[in-house]
Amino acid sequence: MSEHRLPPALEYVPQITEWAAGRRLAFFLDLDGTLAPFAPRPELVHLSARVRDALVRAARRHLVCVVSGRSLADLKDKVCIDTIYYAADHGHRIAGPPASGIDVEIEGAKEGTMLAAATELERRLQHVAGVVIEVKEVTLSVHYRLVAEEERPLVRRAVADAARAFPDLRPTEGKLVCELRPAGTWNKGRAILWLLERLGRGKSDTYPICLGDDVTDEDMFRAVADWGIPVIVGDPARPTRARYRLGDGDEVAAFLEWLGSC
After folding, report:
1. How far is residue 243's CA from residue 238's CA, in Å, rounded to a whole number?
2. What is the per-residue pLDDT across 90-121, written as a single tens digit (0 to 9) for each?
3. How far is CA 177 from CA 40, 99, 100, 174, 246, in A?
4. Which domains, from first to last, does the chain contain?
5. Is 77 among the catalytic positions?
6. Whole-angstrom Cα distance, residue 243 to residue 204?
7. pLDDT value for 261
8. CA-closest candidate to residue 35, choices 240, 238, 188, 254
């Protein structure tokens, strides 16, 4: 994995189009921190008109899939494009355009487990100001962006304890968020490979391009590392499997506008 400053993806768009020659592009894109900037609370995240337009235009020529930890309903509401694919709940919920016939849940937890875990976390964290517990279809997120620095370890400890109390679940972490997911190995990377296989796409005819900013996106990067382009957004203080970088939302929009029209 790379630990040095990565080359800027915008400078390599001509080369990327050459490397993809003879293959169709497929875009797999994270939402929060990638297509849209972070906000203090998840419901305040907003997708700009420029990025939405770039996605619509790219979808006319290429496979476009937004891959997120959000629930499917929330993700569709935020992006609001019916010509693209969605891999929600870290890939546990996958849906396509209405005519695609794709709307599946993969490796979900036992019914009631996530709600029981949420109830326990609400009890444990009721006195922690700023914490946001978000129960989704298949996963659960505990956001602590608004929590005081000295209380953040309490949040992480509570989520770890909940994972031990509910063996069906496993804990993961992202940027100022702790999550509980169904136990198992399913992730964003496996989800995008599943979608490509379902659509009859593979290494011989497809050139995947993955954009993400968080550690949870590394599974996508790993999945395409030997046959596509993993691009990280921002400048992470951690090793990454990405090969290129984009600095911010404006660069993401420009990258999608350029490559999406190819």
Report:
1. 14
2. 999 999 999 999 999 998 877 789 999 999 99
3. 12, 35, 33, 5, 22
4. 9-106+186-260 (3.40.50.1000), 113-182 (3.30.70.1020)
5. no
6. 21
7. 86
8. 254
Mean pLDDT confidence for 168-193: 95
Beta-bridged to residue 29, according to DSSP, are 66, 211
* Bridge partners of residue 259, in order along the sequence: none
Q: What tens digit of pLDDT does each residue of 21-59 get? A: 999 999 999 999 999 999 999 999 999 999 999 999 999
Output the pLDDT for position 194.
Answer: 98
**Cα(32)–Cα(26) distance, rounded to whole angstroms?**
20
Q: pLDDT-derived band of residue 2, with 50, 70 and 90 as boundaries? A: low
Tokens 């659960």 identify what position? 140
Residue 101: which residues within 8 A CB-CB, separation 6 or more? Answer: none
CA distances from 54 to 60, 136, 147, 262 (A): 10, 28, 35, 12
| Catalytic hit among 30, 32, 168, 217 | 30
Which amino acid would we find at residue 153?
A: P
- Alpha carbon of 79 to those of 74, 175, 182, 196: distances in Å? 9, 21, 25, 21
The pair of three-digit structure tokens given for residue 105, joined into one six-digit string: 């849940």
What is the C-alpha to C-alpha distance for residues 187 and 213, in angstroms, rounded to an integer?
A: 15
Beta-strand ranges (E) seen in the chain are 24-29, 63-67, 85-88, 93-95, 103-105, 132-135, 140-143, 169-174, 177-182, 206-212, 229-233, 244-246
State the DSSP string of 200-254: T--TTTEEEEEEE-SGGGHHHHHHHTTTSEEEEES--SS-BS-SEEE-SHHHHHH
